[in-house]
Amino acid sequence: MKGRKQQAQKRDEVRRAILDAARHLFIEGGYANVPIRRVASHLGYSAAALYRYFPTKDDIFNDLAEEGFRLIMAHETLPTCPPDAPPLERLRHFCWGVYDFATIYPEYFYLIFLDRSAPRLKPQSRGLRAIAETAPNVRQVIEDCVAAGELRPGLDIATVYHVLCTAIHGLSAQYVCNRLPEGVEPEAYARVIVDLAIAGLRAGALDGVRMVPVAAAAAGSRTSRRAGHSRRQAQSSNPRR
Amino acid sequence: MKQQRRERRQNEVRRAILDAARHLFIDGGYANVPIRRVAAQLEYSPAALYRYFPTKDDIFNELAEEGFRLLVSRETLPTCPPDASPVERLRHFFWGVFDFARLYPEYFYLIFLDRSAPRLKPDSRGIRAVKEVYPRVRELLDACIASSDLQPGLDVATVYNVMCTAIHGVAAMYVCNRLPEGVDPEAYAHTVVDLAIAGLRMGALDGVSLFGTCGDAASGASRRARSARPRRTAG
Fold it and tell me: How far apart are alpha carbons A190 and A198 in whole angstroms?
């Protein structure tokens, strides 16, 4: 009994060591340039021993990606936001979480989002399914903003989620890559970017816009029901006002 | 005549070095590619290469300048109809950020996303090339202010940098093949640009000055930025 427990614990430790070593090596050398052998030799294992834990390099990446996405979620789910904060403030905290993740876990951010040689995650991968779990949370914040009269009704949650994340993504990438404009204070700059994105949302830039097709947005996104005309509508509602 | 030929030959060699270096840096990561490998790829001796570029950073600086000039060329693209509204012209300008990434993903990656590449100095030719575009941004903002699409008092350096950062994300996702599953890249990028322009028109950058007056390094600007956080209602 005790032996089996110890064995399981040992296995978990080895898994952890493999993931940590792989993360560092992938980031230094670029995912495509690091053969799984090098991860093994870095740890003093044989390649065969490592394959017992992770049959392919992509399996390692998928595990790291899932870990990363769970860390993003932990930041998006407003741990720092006072529970009685007004809805708009909660939306701001959500956006802030996207940036906050990058500042705390730059390695995960780089590996998941900026390594061009890493594989694209499949829609049904655990990482992307993990991130879809935040949808109800985002929906709640948006609905509260609508109820408070801060946003107009009818916003597509998946579109709002992705576009807001994308608008903050550039800031995160600049932070992680040390490319923020010379002389700005990162936090103050980040706040301005978050404010710009939220102001654009409040100005109605995403009213009636539907960017993400039903299938991809499916998890947790109830509005996907009223879909079908996603792309064209998004295009035609490109404001050319 | 002979000298002309020699100059042409020298320019060809320079070009070959820059192109080879760009490819190698992108494949291997800037820090992982020694200058020897660039030389070997071209079958030059390292000494021959050093005559053109004394250090690896000199190659990077040259590539960065080229990249920034390409970025500016997309921002100032003359495809916008001359009778377009001021806001439309502003939109065309910032579309250039995504357009640059779409057309020159290698330059985009090397300049902005390779963590191991050196940070460009403020007085580098690349950064100076970008700043040359500020008067054009000023002109566009003034036209938008004259047509009452924007409030007066916007700071050029702040608007330029913040708008570029807001669009940087969609460009980076495009270059790294990380756009959300199933979206049309151009339509998605248009939406992001529209969001940023709408935020600007909503007044998110009114009174915000993140840089010094000359558009260079900031001083107490960040404090001002904080107090300028918009708390306005929609409408």
Answer: 12
- Residues of A with CB below 8 A from B189's CB? none
Per cent of chain A over pLDDT 70 is 87
Query: How far is it, in rounded angstroms, from Cα B156 to Cα B105?
Result: 27
- Is B235 a member of any domain? no
Domains contained in chain B, number: 2
Closest CA to B171 of A25, A171, A111: A171
Residues A225 and A220: their CA atoms lie apart, in Å, by 11
> Domain check: are B13 and B40 in the same one?
yes
Give yes or no: residues A36 and A73 share one domain: no
The ipTM of this complex is: 0.87
CA atoms of A215 and A199, how far apart (whole Å) = 29
pLDDT of residue B40: 96
Distance CA B158, CA A196 (A): 12
Task: Output the domain CATH number for residue A42.
Answer: 1.10.10.60
Q: Mind telling me how many Å the CA of A119 is from chain B's nearest CA?
A: 9
Q: Is the pLDDT of residue B182 over 80?
A: yes
- The answer to whether A206 contacts chain B (CB < 8 Å) is yes
- Tokens matching residue B116: 């191991």
Show which of residues 9-38 on chain A sit within 8 Å of chain B, judged by CB atoms: 28-30, 33
Chain B segment 92-121 residues within 8 A of A by beta carbon are: 109, 112-115, 119
Q: Is B180 on the interface with A (CB under 8 A)?
A: yes
In the prediction, which pLDDT does A130 show?
Answer: 85
By C-alpha distance, the chain A residue nearest B149 is: A241
Q: Based on the domain organization, do B25 and B61 belong to the same domain?
A: no
List the structure tokens of B121: 């100095």
Which residue is it, tokens 């080895």? A14
Mean pLDDT of A199-220: 77
Q: Answer yes or no: are the C-beta atoms of A146 and A88 closer than 8 Å.
A: no
> Quick check: helix, strand or coil at residue B102?
helix
